[in-house]
Each structure stands twice: as structure tokens, then as C-alpha cells.
Amino acid sequence: MARPRISDVAAAAGVSVTTVSLVMNDVESRISADTRLRVREAARAVGYAPSSVARGLRTQQTRTVGLISDQIATTPFAGRMLAGAQDAARAQGHLVFLVDTGGDDQIERDAIAALTAQQVDAMIYASMWHRIVDAPAGLPAGTVFLDCRPADGGFRSVVPDDRVGGAAAVRELVAAGHRRIAYLDTTDTPIASALRHEGYLSVLAEAGIPVDPALHVTGDTSAQGGRSAAERLLDLPEDQRPTAIFCFNDRMAVGVYTAAHHRGLEIPRDLSIVGYDDQQLIAAEQDPPLTTVALPHYEMGRWAMEVALGVRAEGAEDATHLMECPVIRRDSVGPPPAQVAKPNRRRASHTERLPEAAIDR
Amino acid sequence: MARPRISDVAAAAGVSVTTVSLVMNDVESRISADTRLRVREAARAVGYAPSSVARGLRTQQTRTVGLISDQIATTPFAGRMLAGAQDAARAQGHLVFLVDTGGDDQIERDAIAALTAQQVDAMIYASMWHRIVDAPAGLPAGTVFLDCRPADGGFRSVVPDDRVGGAAAVRELVAAGHRRIAYLDTTDTPIASALRHEGYLSVLAEAGIPVDPALHVTGDTSAQGGRSAAERLLDLPEDQRPTAIFCFNDRMAVGVYTAAHHRGLEIPRDLSIVGYDDQQLIAAEQDPPLTTVALPHYEMGRWAMEVALGVRAEGAEDATHLMECPVIRRDSVGPPPAQVAKPNRRRASHTERLPEAAIDR
DNA sequence: TTGAAAGCGCTAACAA
DNA sequence: TTGTTAGCGCTTTCAA
Q1: Chain A residues near residue B51 by CB distance under 8 angstroms
Q2: Do both B184 and B248 map to the same domain?
Q3: Which residues are bridge partners to A291 per DSSP?
Q4: Residue B276 belongs to what domain range?
Q5: Which of A297, B151, B152, B316 could serve as A81's disulfide partner, Cβ 3.0–4.6 Å?
Q6: A 80-109 residues inside an 8 A Cβ radius of B
Q7: Residue pLDDT, tens place only, B226-236
Q8: Predicted structure pTM score
Q9: For chain B, how many structural domains are there in total?
């Protein structure tokens, strides 16, 4: 059985297709209540649902959106960003085409062409981590950049406010009483790390804490990278060693936990840690749960879609919207340990603590 | 400037729209090379690309696929499944509509209606973890179920072969010499856990190892759940305690690591562990890296899409395809510890080991 | 309050 | 080898 058409409904209801169309689209002002009911009934009877394709051709509006992203498969963040975009799209009665290019330029070009051919009403160009990208050719005007900014402007974009987020993280530590705060940085993702570093420096300045270059170390964005960088920090002489570490991200923070545990340092008693990302299945599951700064992925996805669909009339044509990154307080931050005079005291106290670890079996 | 139409190209090239259509669709047999070139040139000149919407209306084939899933946002598996489906779709020149219902039935119904209205050529109904679902009404025939099976059949489906996967995991342990192997199970996800349990039992049987009910414990699927369940296992008298634990999933395995560390047990020297899922950012980043069984998400996604688009002519209309779960060998499996006579020996060796941990600073 | 008819942009049957 | 034309299923103008 073929898909019923509007004329089938018209015939069944004994009216014209115009009338059916009017009823189906709730332009009912001019249709009598009686006719309306007959049409509705007939539509249900034949199992009619308007063809979006035909409607799209006629109205030149498809109620679809294209979402192009570089990496969905390999990042744990994709989900929330997509969810935000999806929810906003659904609220507007739009369906979203998702294309993951895997970073391949040819696939990206093809995707833009295919999406354009599909006459999507809007387009979102998403990156899975905050960075500056070269806008690909062929993107329709009005495309919104999600978690990235076009190098040459020309498009609206939304990115996390990493500077303020970094500041919030460090302020958390300062508020707990720390003065020797390290920034465990990375060089893998320049934009975000530089911004978080700026935030770090601004808070040190506002708290009147001198900047110690030795407390700024880098590693690659993995637990292993975090661990090696942390080792360097913990190898510093006792009086120069940080009492708190702000980590570029949660994965690196996990490495800091490992490094700390291997030295018998207890978190947060001996060392406070703040991460970034609030990565699911990681941050909250540490022991103790990690205090971190959340990346507002859902909100960014939602914002991008709303702007793309014109729900939100955001200012300038190529303005960048900064989304707040909230601090998620858990249990990895505490006051700094009481000042210790001799470098060897800590090692001693470490040894004293060992029985505790054995006891809880 | 409006989108150029086929007639614009025809006018520019001085031919009919038929000719243009023929050329654009590579049905060139009847078109002279000369005309072909002229048309191509004209198309480029006016910046023409055929409208998929118009073509879809005319041919009744949209070259789009609908992918409905319950939870993308909250699962780390979604990505690879999507990637597999996407890649297969792209290979066929199809675009995919993605809808995440979040498990909401109303959203699901709306999505099915919207996708049907869009006249998608195929549909995939995906779950983010292996389970049996009630097929929602309105799904078009030919819909493929991904990582789930319809309770009443009627549709093709692809799911991981959890029974064989569970067997492979346990066989790994048996091969290393273990005889007291626990299954750290969960009740959160009945299908998968029951199948893996079957695999576990089958390998014990084939190895002639008696089943010890005390070695079958359950917890919820989290690090915390794994930890508590592991505590129960490790609390067993020395001679009944397992030398190896097969965990329902990697998250729970992480909890086992924690429990083991708190007792001073070293992995794999004192305890071997095998997980399941090969969860990114978790399994490989444990210390030591976790041996686990991978869920073939990419392959399942790819398979589902290929079957949905008819690339793969799979047998029966409602057959279930079982996808192999490969063992990922890392460093959490070793031979069982040498038999220890007295219950206290282990604690002694634990204490002896402590200096090692302190040394590596 | 309702209907006839044009046309969205394309493909394909048929004609030349 | 190429062109004319009907029609895919709908919306919308205009007329009744």
C-alpha cells in the first residue's frame, strides 16, 4: 500500500485538497468546525501524514538543520553538545542531520554540499574542543560555530569562557587558603590552555600571590601526561612545592591523583586538586571525587541551535558568545597542610600514615 | 540571489532541462561529449547543485536515513556506533537524521512520525546498551535494531555476542592458570549480564573447574558498585578467595582496582582482572592497563546501516546478528600467586612491599 | 466558507 | 542525440 496523499483525504472527506491542507496546517479560521472534523477523521481513517518532502519543495523550508562536526566518535563531550542542539531543534520542530567528518576535509566539503542540496534551514559547524578553525568554503551565511571560532570571523560562534573558568578554579583554591598553586598545563590545545592560564594569573594577581614559573608545568592531555608533570611539581623542595594544583583537565588530574598516591600524599589533606571539564565517569568517580570546572556543552549546543534557527536574535553577525563554566565542588579541595619546617618531616609523616591504609581491610 | 535551478543551467548551456538532468546524473550514454562539457561548464558557471528535495519528491527516494536512539548524551559508547553507521551511510551517499529520545516515549513517537514524514529511505532503532525492547508502533518494515532486539521479533537486529565474549574473558584467565575465578556481576542490565554469566559458566565447565556460588557477586554498574562487590570477594577466607575476577564492565573493574589497592594487593601479581567494554579513557588508562573485552560498537553501527540500506542482503527478515567481542590484552592478567599456606603471609608481604612505593619518589 | 489551479525543481516516459 | 511534458505532493493565490 502506497503512502496516502492529500487527495486521498480530500476524496474521503468529500472536500478539496485546499481544505485538507488548511485543516492540516491549523489555518482553520476559514474552515467550519464541521468540515474540520470531517477532514480530521478522514485523515486518521486513511492514515495520512503530510509529506515533508513535498511541503519542503513547495515552501522552500525543510525544517531540517545540518550539524557538521569534526570528531564525535572519539570524544566524550559530543553527547551533551548534541543533546543541547537536538533539544533546541526539536522545540522548533526541526530534525537534525548529523555529519561527523572525522576531520577529513574532503568529507567536510561533501557534507556541506550534501546538506546544501538538502536545503537545510540552518547549519552548525561544531568542534569537539575549543579552538580556532578556518571556516570551510561553502558554509551558508548564518552558520553558527559551536565550541570553535572562525579564524577570519564572519560567523557567530559560542565557546566556553575558559578564562573566567580558569579564574574560578584558582579562586576556589585561593579561598581555601592556598598560596602555592601550580597550573598543570598542556600544549595540546593552545586556545583553551592559554585562556585558563590567563585566568590563573589574574587570580594570583588579585590575591597578591607572586607568580612562580616553577609552578607552571606542562604535559600531554592524558592521565600519564598529568602524572609526569605532577611528579616534577612534587619533586620540588618542600618549601617550594605547591599545596594545590589546578589541572588543565580531569584526565590529567587523574594522573596527579596517581602521582600523589604513590608518594603517600592524601587528597585533599596534603594536596588540593581542581580539574576542568567535569568529565563524566571520571571526575565524580575519583577517590575522593574531583572538584572541577564544568564545560557547558549542553548549553552551548542549545545556544548554537537557537541562534541558528533564529529563536535567539543575538547581536552582531559575527559575535562570539562566551558561555560560563561553573565550578563543580566535590572533595579534592581542602585547606593547605600546616606549614612544615624540615624537608624530611613529610616523609616521616608519610611513613606514620601507612598503617592506616592497611587498617581499613 | 536565489538558488539556481536546472532551467538556469539549461538556458546557460543552450540545451533542454532533460539534457542537464541526464548529464548531472551521469546517464551520459546518449549525450554527446561536447554537450556534456557545455552543460558541466554552465552548471559550474551558475553554481548549480541539484535540489535533493525536488529530486526526492520526484523519485520518492530521499537518500536519507533516520537513526533513533534512546541515550546518546549519557553514554560513552554512542560515538563509535554512530561513526560506524555514518560511515556506511556516507558510502551509500546517504545523510543521516539523528534523534535522541532520551528514553521518552512521546519524543520517540514524534520522531518516528517526523522521520516517516521526511520519507527516509531506511530507519535504525538503536539502544545504547544490549537489551530487549518493545518495538514502538509505526516503525517502518525493514527497520534495523542496533544493540537491542525487539521483544516480539519482526525486525532484523545486531547485538554483541556477550556469551562468547564472556567465555573469551574467562578463558583468558583460565589460560593464565587461574582456577578460582569470580564473576563480578550486575543486575542493572539483565541481558548482557546473563549472557556473560553463561559464557563464564561454560568455560569453567570446559576447564573442569567446579562452580563456587560464593564467587558470583553483584553490584551496580559503577566503580563504587564494583568496589563493594570486590570487598566481599576479598573478604573471603584466603583459601576461598578468588585469584582472578572477571568484571561485568570496566567501570566496575576500576572499583576492583581500588579495593585491591586498599588492601595492598598488586595487580596482576596478587589478583588478575578482566573487564568488559574496553571503555575509552578508562580501560587503557588504569594502572596497570586493564585487559578487557571490547564491544564492537563501530562494527555493529556499520552492520546495521548496511543492512538497513540493503547493501548487505542478510538472511531472515527477523534474524539477530551476533557480533564478536574481541579480547583486548593489556596488563591486568598474570598467573595466580603461588599458593600461600597461612592467612597472615599475605599481610606480611604487603608490609614488606611498602618501601618500594616510597622509593620511587 | 470552499475550490481550482499554478507552481516549487526535478526525473523520466515519450516524441522527434 | 535531444526536447516536450506530465507529474511527484504539497501550499497558496485567486476566484467563486
Answers
A1: 57, 117, 119
A2: yes
A3: A274
A4: 163-295+325-360
A5: A297
A6: 80, 82-83, 86, 90, 95-100, 102, 107
A7: 999 999 999 99
A8: 0.90
A9: 3
